[in-house]
Amino acid sequence: AQSVTQLDSHVSVSEGTPVLLRCNYSSSYSPSLFWYVQHPNKGLQLLLKYTSAATLVKGINGFEAEFKKSETSFHLTKPSAHMSDAAEYFCVVSDLGMNTGFQKLVFGTGTRLLVSP
Amino acid sequence: DAGVTQSPTHLIKTRGQQVTLRCSPKSGHDTVSWYQQALGQGPQFIFQYYEEEERQRGNFPDRFSGHQFPNYSSELNVNALLLGDSALYLCASSLAQTGELFFGEGSRLTVL
To answer: Which of A29, A80, B21, B104 has its CA 20 to 30 A from that of A70?
Structure first.
């Protein structure tokens, strides 16, 4: 079964400093990986996705992630944090049903990003 | 173009009651998935509907059931509510089996 592990439950940064949110995945086949963001009392918004094209994926709001097969990692980065980046971030892997052909998303436990002035 | 809309946004029930949550998919989408997000956790897949049939189901008891209508909208029903059913219930829609998922803002259920 597909799974992801988010290595930090909370990450604190100062505004203007780099952001690194770590994620490792486990997959029996070439995975599709995603990062979603959830602001308080809001739904989930897709930041970026990897689907076996370029290993460095650029997303919205200046975020990017690098797929590293040798390390089974898909870490999310941003060069300079903004106050509005404070939110919950989820690393997600797509699990394609072998018999159904339908995909479901398997979420990590989330990393709360705190940004201080 | 309206995105995924869910109703109600908040509701409170007591143990043993039944609840129905509703979801209208994004225009043009034909597949609806439901996820449960307990407090402090990541969302967990409940089930997925396509062509009015349940196509895939996560590890949830039969108390959780659903329906998809001809206009692609969907309902999630939970019977015999338990305290542990308190959560944010998220609906996501997509085009066909493997299209990108778009999420609604969720229905927050509190069971007392």
So the answer is: A80
- Residue B24 pairs in a beta bridge with B5
In DSSP notation, A58-95 reads: E-GGG-EEEEEGGGTEEEEEESS--GGG-EEEEEEEEE
pLDDT, tens digit, for every residue of B28-37?
A: 999 999 999 9
Q: Are the Cβ atoms of B90 and A43 closer than 8 angstroms?
A: yes
Angle (CA) A43-B86-B54 rounded to 5° is 70
As a whole number of angstroms, the distance between CA A45 and CA B104 comes to 9
**Structural contact between residues A76 and A35, judged by C-beta atoms closer than 8 angstroms:** yes
Q: pLDDT for B51-74, tens place per residue?
A: 999 998 999 999 999 999 999 999
Distance from CA of A80 to the nearest CA of B (A): 26
- Using the beta-carbon criterion (under 8 Å), do A90 and B56 form an inter-chain contact? no
CA–CA dist B27, B1 (Å, integer): 7
Partner residue facing B56 (CB), from A41, A46, A100: A100
- Three-state secondary structure call for residue B83: helix
Closest Cα in chain B, distance from residue A110 (Å): 6
Q: Is residue B93 within 8 Å of residue B27, measured between CB atoms?
A: no
* Residue B85: DSSP 8-state: G
